[in-house]
Structures are given as C-alpha cells and as structure tokens.
C-alpha cells in the first residue's frame, strides 16, 4: 500500500497542473506559448511569464525544502527538524525585511545577503540553546519556534511604523509563489544544483552522522567540522528558498517522513526521495491554491501548507518517546521560602504607587508635571489598562502553571492568548459594526476552547509538560496562520487590527479602562477561592485524588477563570506579552512558592512589568510609540529561552 502513495501523489499533481494549465490556455497552444509566446495574446503571455515559472518554482522550492529538511534531520538526528520549526525561515524573513527597509540601495544582492545573515544567526542561536541537551528534538523545536515568534514580534513592530512599505512584502513572504517573469527560477536552479553537488561530495561523512557521536569520533572523523559544515549548507539553502518564495512551512518536515514510509533507509536514497517528495507536495499545494482561487479567493501557499501541516505535526510530536522538557525549577530545598508579611506587602504597595505616579507624570517634557488636564485625559486610561492587563495575565499564568504542574506553561507559550485573539479578530471580520460587547465573550470562548484542546490531547501522557508545550505550539501555528490570512486579506481594518495585535494601550478610552479595571478586580477576587486546589494540584493527579480533590471539576473551574482573565487582558494588550510566563517565575525566584503568596506577588510583578513596558514604549522613541505588549515580548522571549536552557 505504501508503494502506491507516491504514484498517487504524482498523479494528483499532474491532474491539478493539467487542469490549471488548460484553464489558462488551450492545449494546442501550449508548445507555442512555452517557446515563443505571441505578445498579442494575453493568455499566452500569462501562461509563459506567470503559470510556467510559478509551476517550475514550486517544484524547485519544494525540492529544496525536502532536501534541507532531510539534511537537518540527518545531522541533528532529529525527526522534527526543518527550516520552519527551527526558526531558520523566520530569521531569513526578518533579515529580508530589515534589508527592504534600511538597505534598499544595496539592491537584490544586499537583500540576499541579509536573508542569509538572518537565517544563520537564528540557526546558530537555536543550536546554542539546545547544545547542552545533546540537540534534544523537543528543545530544538521549542527554541526554534520561540525564536521564530520573536522574529515575528520584531516584524510586527517594523510593520507598525512602515505598514505601507511592508504590506506587499508581508503578503509575498507568507508563501506566495506568484511570478511575473523567469528571474527567480534562473536565480534558484544553478544555486540549488551547486548545493546538491556539495551534498554529494559530503555524502559519506553525512551518512556517518546518523551514528552515535562516540562511534563517529572513534572512526577518526572530525565531527564538529562536518556537523557545522552540513548545518551551514542546510541554512544557506533554506535562506535562498525564503528569499525567492517566502516562508513555506512543514514541507521540509513531511517530505523526509514520507520518504521513510516509502522504505528509504540509506541516506542517499532518503535525500533523493525527500527531494522528489517535497517537489510533488508543494506542487500539489500550489496547484490546489490556484484552483481554489478560481472559485473563492487566493490564499498564500505557505498558509495552506501550515493549515494542513500543523495538525500532522501535532500527530508526529505526540509520538516522540523519551523526550521530556522539564518545566520544574531547581529543588525547593535549595531555595529559602519567604512569607508575605504585612511589612513586605506594604512595601510592594508603596512601590506600585511610586510606579503609577511616575507613569502618570513623567514624560517627554517638564510641562507634563503641571499639565494635569492632559495627564488625566490621555494617560490615566493607559496606566489603568496596563496595570489591569498585566495583573490578569500574571494571575492567568500562575493558575495555568500550578494547574498543570508545568513552570514553562503560560497563556502565550500554550497559544491560549493567540486563541483568544483569533476569536476576537474573527468576530471583527464576520460581525461588522459595533461588536464591542461581544468581544469579551468571543475571547473567553477562544481561550477556553484552546485550553480544553490542550488538556484533552495532553491527558494521554498524564498532562506531561512536553506534550502540553508541543500541543500549544502546534495550536499557535494554526492561529498564527489564520491571523496572517486576515492581515493579507486587504481589509481596510487591517491597520487597527495590527496595532491591537501588537499590544497597544494608546487607543484605550476612559470607558474601556474603567470596564477593564472593574473586570480585573472581579476576576482577581475570585482567585483566593481556588487556593486549596492551587496548592495541591502541582503535586500530581494521584496525590490530588488521594486527598479528595475533584480533578475534573477543579480543572474546569480553573480553566474557565484563566480563560476569562486571558480574554480580558488580550482585549487591552494583544496576544503576545509573556507577562504570564515571567511574573510567576519572578515570584517563585523571590522565594514565594506557596499558592497565594506566589499569586499575589506575581500579580504585582505582572502589573508592574506591563506598566513599565507601557511607560518605556511611550517615551523611548518619542513621538512614536512602541506597544506595551510588543515591548514586553522582547523581554519575554529571551526569558523563555533562558528557562529552556536552564531546565
């Protein structure tokens, strides 16, 4: 049965291609349009300069992705490694974005060099994070996807200030293969041929990399040199593919997997079959997107592959064995536990008051100290919204971490904030007009469904930290793809949605700030009712059941409260801030490990961090402003990487 899979894929690709070609141009005219198109015939010109190069480019890019994925997987002995999951594609895209904005005079060569530099930097960082864990598959995936999210945050910041200049670039870089000439094909094929020749020369040492490191060293091979050379070759190949086609994910993951299903065990056969399979997979995807465009709308090919690939990636991830990412901190016995005394509580309150006063009355001019009308009209809503959002995200992060017993879980990492944001954006597009009253229920529903799916899929492994994190990562990929489709749809509301997704508070009105503060106060007052559950659940399911904790009911109630907190905060600061990850850890590192002291200190830390991010974002590049959620992300992603490195 497996032998028939590739012929069936090839047949499907040929049928789709023939149908699209025939829709564009009648069969008798194909030969003339290929060699010497009639310039007076628009159909022949489109066939020659658009349809044909797009088809050949999809074959080249798919083949390159399959080859790069097989290389990554062989060198790292990691069945989940590929350009997108390792963050290499995101780094290349960020490099291209920076070159487009700040090095336009360098021309095409400068853009290619910037793309290559971005891919190499991110690839090296991912390997550095995972180097202490013997290139663990799970660690590599989490580090790569987190650095990819960080690159996405930087691109979002650039897009806020250069939306018009980058709109077309973002549409293209989401995986659009539309072509107007043969330039990308002529650029790519000789370089890919050179890469194939270099890989062929390295085939023997690359084949030995599939063995254990000790065995390879005993054979006399310079392991570090071969591994580094092979990885750099794969990174350069990935960067070239991104520079001509944007980010197209998961082809590099699936092609080697399918090659193994076909029975390719030796490296040369696996590389060749992965290359062919990648070409056929991307050809099917792109031709299906072209066919869909004739009856509906045209979506980026990269988005289509992500929508199909993320669930399959989730299916593959859950079958990894003996790969655990520890979410626990160091042994509590090494840390001195602190009590939240009244004196310490008063000090925290005093510090918060000082920060609020500074946020209200400090600014870009001395007149802000005396211009009370401007202060109360423009700043107090932002201050209140930042405080409330930071406190709610910190509380939600603490609830999730204690419920799951996973100190690396948070609304942002698990994709819960992205689920809430996706539901809200979907509401904005599907329900025109004044839909403010429905945004909070929609966000709650999106967050609750995301958490529920994570719990259901991770329950087989006893809610293991690894399975929960990887499930959240896969869901984040799906939500990110949906949001990308919204952003490239051409809707006039894109600019405001992009600003909101970045976590901006400068559009918060007095009414919105008041409602957010009231909602935050109400939800936070409910958290002490869960104190006993939050104390016992981190000890594990068996212990909690033995003590008499109703596991199902307790998790559902905590889930609902966390979802409400996340939805309310996301309305103010968008889906990315990492406050939900940082604040509970700050409280734990300060010595507050019991449920309620940790929760209270985390709430104060989250509110203070978000207020600090909002204040810095307001003045650092005045008169322009950096959204608070985006600035907090710049701090949060490195924090997660540090935790991953330390775990």
TrEMBL record:
It is found in: Cell membrane. The keyword Transferase does not apply. It is a multi-pass membrane protein. GO terms for cellular component: plasma membrane. The lineage of its organism: Bacteria, Pseudomonadati, Pseudomonadota, Gammaproteobacteria, Enterobacterales. GO terms for biological process: siderophore-iron import into cell. The chain crosses the membrane at residues 52-72, 84-107, 113-131, 138-162, 182-203, 224-241, 247-264, 271-293, 299-318, 339-363, 383-401, 413-431, 437-457, 469-488, 508-526, 557-587, 599-620, 626-644. This is Iron ABC transporter. InterPro entries: ABC_BtuC-like, ABC_transptr_permease_BtuC. PANTHER family: FE(3+) DICITRATE TRANSPORT SYSTEM PERMEASE PROTEIN FECD-RELATED, FERRIC ENTEROBACTIN TRANSPORT SYSTEM PERMEASE PROTEIN.
């Amino acid at each position: 049965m497996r032998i028939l899979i590739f012929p069936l894929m090839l047949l499907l690709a040929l049928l789709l291609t023939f149908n699209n070609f025939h829709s564009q141009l009648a069969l008798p005219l194909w030969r003339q349009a290929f060699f010497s198109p009639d310039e007076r015939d628009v159909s022949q010109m489109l066939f020659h300069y658009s349809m044909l190069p797009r088809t050949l480019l999809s074959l080249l890019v798919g083949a390159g992705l399959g080859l790069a994925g097989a290389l990554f997987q062989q060198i790292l002995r990691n069945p989940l490694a590929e350009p997108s999951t390792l963050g290499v594609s995101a780094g290349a895209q960020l490099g291209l974005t920076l070159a487009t904005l700040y090095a336009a005079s360098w021309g095409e060569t400068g853009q290619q060099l910037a793309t290559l530099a971005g891919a190499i930097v991110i690839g090296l960082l991912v390997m550095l994070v995972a180097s202490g864990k013997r290139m663990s598959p799970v660690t590599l995936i989490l580090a790569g996807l987190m650095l990819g999210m960080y690159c996405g945050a930087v691109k979002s910041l650039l897009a806020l200030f250069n939306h018009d200049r980058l709109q077309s670039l973002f549409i293209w870089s989401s995986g659009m293969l539309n072509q107007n000439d043969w330039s990308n094909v002529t650029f790519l094929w000789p370089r890919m041929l050179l890469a194939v020749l270099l890989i062929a020369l390295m085939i023997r040492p690359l084949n030995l990399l599939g063995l254990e490191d000790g065995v390879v060293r005993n054979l006399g091979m310079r392991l570090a040199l071969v591994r580094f050379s092979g990885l750099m070759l794969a990174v350069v190949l990935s960067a070239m593919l991104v520079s001509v086609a944007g980010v197209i994910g998961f082809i590099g993951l699936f092609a080697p997997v399918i090659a193994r299903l076909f029975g390719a065990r030796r490296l040369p056969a696996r590389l060749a079959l992965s290359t062919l399979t990648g070409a056929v997979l991307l050809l099917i995807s792109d031709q299906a997107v072209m066919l869909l465009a004739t009856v509906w709308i045209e979506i980026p090919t990269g988005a289509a592959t992500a929508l199909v690939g993320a669930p399959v990636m989730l299916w593959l991830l859950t079958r990894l064995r003996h790969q655990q990412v520890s979410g626990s901190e160091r042994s509590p016995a090494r840390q001195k536990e602190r009590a939240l005394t009244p004196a310490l509580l008063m000090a925290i309150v005093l510090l918060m008051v000082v920060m609020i006063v500074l946020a209200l009355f400090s600014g870009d001019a001395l007149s802000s100290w005396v211009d009370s009308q401007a202060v109360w009209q423009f700043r107090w809503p932002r201050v209140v919204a930042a405080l409330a959002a930071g406190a709610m995200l910190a509380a939600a992060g603490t609830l999730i971490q204690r419920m799951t017993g996973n100190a690396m879980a948070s609304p942002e990492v698990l994709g819960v904030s992205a689920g809430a944001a996706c539901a809200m954006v979907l509401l904005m597009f599907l329900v025109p007009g004044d839909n403010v009253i429905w945004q909070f229920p929609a966000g709650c529903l999106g967050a609750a469904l995301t958490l529920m799916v994570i719990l259901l899929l991770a329950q087989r492994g006893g809610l293991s930290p690894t399975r929960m994190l990887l499930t959240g990562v896969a869901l984040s990929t799906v939500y990110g793809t949906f949001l990308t489709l919204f952003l490239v749809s051409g809707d006039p509301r894109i600019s405001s949605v992009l600003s909101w997704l970045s976590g901006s508070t400068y559009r918060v009105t007095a009414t919105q700030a008041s409602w957010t503060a009231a909602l935050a106060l109400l939800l936070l007052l409910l958290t002490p009712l869960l104190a006993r559950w939050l104390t016992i659940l981190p000890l594990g399911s068996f212990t909690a059941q033995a003590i008499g904790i109703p596991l199902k009911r307790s998790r559902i109630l905590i889930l609902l409260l966390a979802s409400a907190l996340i939805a309310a905060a996301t309305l103010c600061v968008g889906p990315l801030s990492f406050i939900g990850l940082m604040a509970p850890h700050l409280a734990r590192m300060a010595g507050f490990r019991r449920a309620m002291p940790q929760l209270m200190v985390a709430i104060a830390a989250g509110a203070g961090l978000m207020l600090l991010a909002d204040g810095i974002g307001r003045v650092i590049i005045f008169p322009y402003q950096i959204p608070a959620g985006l600035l907090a992300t710049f701090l949060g992603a490195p924090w997660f990487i540090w935790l991953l490195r330390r775990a």
